[in-house]
Sequence to fold (1028 residues):
Amino acid sequence: MLFRLEPRGLRSDFWSYGSPVLAVVLTIVTMGVIFAIMGAPPITGIETFLISPLTSPGGIGSLLVRAAPLIMIGVGLAFCYRANVWNIGGDGQFTMGAIFGGGIALLLPNAPFWWCYPLVLVCGVLGGMFWAGIVALLKLKFNANEILTSLMLVYIAQLILVWLVTGPWRDPQGFGFPQSAMFGAGATTPDFGTTSIHLGCVLAPLLAVALWLVMSRSVLGFQLRVVGQAPRAARYAGFSNARLTWIALLVSGGLSGLAGIIEVTGPIGQLTTTITPGYGFTAVIVAFLGRLHPVGVIFAALLLALSYLGGDAAQISLNMPNSITNIFQGVLLFYLLGVDVLILYRIRRVKPRIVEPAV
Amino acid sequence: MAHIKRRGFTAMLGASALAAPGIIGAARAADPVKIGFVYLGPVGDFGWSYQHDVGRKQAEAALKGQVVTSYVENVPEAPECQAVFESLAASGHKLIFGTSFGYMNYMLKVAAKYPDIKFEHCTGYKRAPNLATYDIRFYQGRFVQGVIAGKLSKTGVAGYVASVPVPEVVQGMNAFLLGMQSINPKAKLKFITIDSWYDPGKEGDAAKALLDQGCDVLTQHTDSPSPLQVAASRNLPAFGEATDMISFAPKTQLTADVNEWGGYYTQRIKALLAGSWTSIDTWGGFAEGMLVMAPFRNMPADVAALATQTVADITSGKNKVFVGPLTDQTGKVFLPAGQVMDDGTLSGLQTLIQGIEGKLS
Amino acid sequence: MNLVYVSSFIVSIIAASTPLLLAASGELITEKSGVLNLGVEGMMLIGAIAGFATAHATGSAALGIVAAALAGVAISMVFAVLTLSLLANQIAAGLALTIFGHGLAALLGAGYVGISAPVLHAIAIPVLSAIPFIGPILFDQNILIYFSFLLICAISWFLNKTHAGLILRAVGDSHDAAHAMGYPVIRIRYAATAFGGALAGIAGAYLSLFYSPLWSQDLSAGRGWIALALVVFSAWRPFYLLAGAYLFGGVTYLALYLQGVGVSIPSPLISALPYAGTIAVLVLISRDARRVRLNQPACLAKYFHAVA
Fold:
């Protein structure tokens, strides 16, 4: 109680970039301690967790495949959060994109690639937009809290997917396994030679950069910054909050939907009951770690993707349970959120008697 | 934490190999060959994955000094598993076992990419020159369970906690009821599919729902001891799955199908070392020693004797389990009298016999 | 249908509903103070493993419950420090708590898979439990089920009839006003968050010591998220929460039960009903501002920093 937070008045530029770096460093130190407790030399542990996945053959490919959906969902969420719209339903929009696009792909098993694939992608985007659009509609029409509605819609989308692949869309030739038929060649995301790298790995960073240009160069981007940082000023300026809410949710929903359809037409190749290991939630970490900045999101997504591969590597070579991936992610976000306080506040020592009971 | 012990040291070596891929190819002939295992669940699920891990340890012990094994647990049936198979392949594992159906297409892709490395896929049906398949005739054990249930059930209705309606599960339900009907021709079977292989809460709920509907003996085709525990809390008999689960329900478990993978793994690794490994499809049961029944407990001696006899008959081939006439749920005969179902039909079975209530979704 | 099966059906629903009720009761108090903690799932898992490990070590399921509550409080304090003292975003901190809880519970539990611990047994109330039909339903349950009934009554009384409850609601509805009146907003929120953590922990212990008495990764299987939905579904009212928990638990159980009797309504769609219902309730109570004020804590998930 001898410290007090004092508002800086202005955001600290140093700490907005310094805090993720500090958080990553603190997390790595903490992981070293955890490795030591678990009986592995900390340096070997960290090397296995963070470096070995990159140096192994095919490692970079695996990393990009993991990072691609995180980037796409993450930039959308970053956009949303800047507009003060708290969409946490990325997983639901991802799933609905996979369902919409996947449904079309199943309808057209023999269609040629040149028109079928773009159509499937567009349907995926529309699926994600539709699911996020519900959130926007309920928020603007009925004032329903978007955190809660978007979260509920995650579970509804997931259960619809389970119903489809265990029911009407179950592969008739699939021996009862809960999955759809494989998509035709016309609805398969192209990949590059023998690597696992696919079109989505290239598209994701390009989309992030495109969104960055929109956010930094356009009138819309300007409105976004004003609304996010000074809602009252935005109202005086006559910016429409409703319009921005719609745009934010549709953009992030569409991007999540795109990530979903690329995932099922690419690495997975069909619809199954589990198409996301929680990318939509991990992307929330990605958005925060990336400072709600599209380019930052790319780096954050790569780091988080690395933590998945690191968990596997630690298991293969150190016999660690792969749950250390979750610990890494959780601890990283804890530190980041903790250190972030330095952006807006400075810590001041205060004499005990001045302290108000409330603080 | 518990399993970071002796194996930690061999693992360290693995880490350096992983960090320096160039060394892998230059490994000396005398070095132990690395064998990898990929599990769907935690090795401690005390069911499916646990039993595969028991097999892995048996094989490693049997071939001490010649091989080292590593495993990855909790690998989902999703694109993530491809990265796991790739990193095992890239880190010098020469034979890699994938132990869940959903790895099939990913294993095919990785096998095509690493033609020099051998892969084996449990429960799958797609093969490649370097990708073999293997499975156990679980239905043989189900028939024995059915015979026991037929003897013990008073209501004549048994409950079956099912995972997903794949052929393996359909075979299991049919075989169980066939065994039961061999004692009590009027016996019926109710089932609930939970769309998952491992979900203790949901498995327990399904078990309760079946018991709440008048079933008085329970079996499960899911991997946790939860249904067994539910039966124990109601003082009704039940069967364990994949491993001997007696410690969870000492007064309840009658027996359990126990999957014995160790012999198979040892044999296949030996073939690899001898250079005689080929891509084959193995479907073994009692006769091959891949399936055994846990000791018959909590039942009268005559029932245990009958169960033992049934095992012997199936082992010797006297009892082929799926023998006509078999009638489907609508009353139509789908296997004429006297005919034995061939393995091809059996391995794609999607028909339930008369007496099973409820439909495959 | 035989009456015994009906009563056993109801007992099964109560058993399925209680973990939701326990976790949601805690979250209700947390949210009433204006704090949205999305980490319920993570706290439940931590509680489940802490309870299981303690019961295994001491041979006492009761000690397991105590340990689970304490573990829940401890982990919820990480969230509280971040969001209340360091003014971090509650949504992000809650998600981090869930992810971290998953990982930590799995790590701590690695050595406990496949072993059994003391099970929490039912306490049959003499004479009453022998009454046909209602006996098994009302008087032959385990202590946490009795506790969950008392808890709801206590929470309702606390929120509506006590001065402390009034202050809690005031803090959740308008932290600035509460602060101006001299109430220690942050301290009250710390306490409410700790209460939520304790109950999520107990709900976890209910799972690992009674419901499916074993430890497995992801034992909670999304129940923490259902509990969050439930708080909204109940419109932040204790007795609606009770009804909602039984409805949610009942629907989940019914989805499986119907399969056994051969009714062919796809169970995933039945399982989706609670979530759809939650959205419907949210729309109903949010659509006019007056109703929102009656129910939803106005400061939910908002920052509070008192200017000294």
Observations:
- Residues 3-32 of chain C form the longest helix (30 residues).
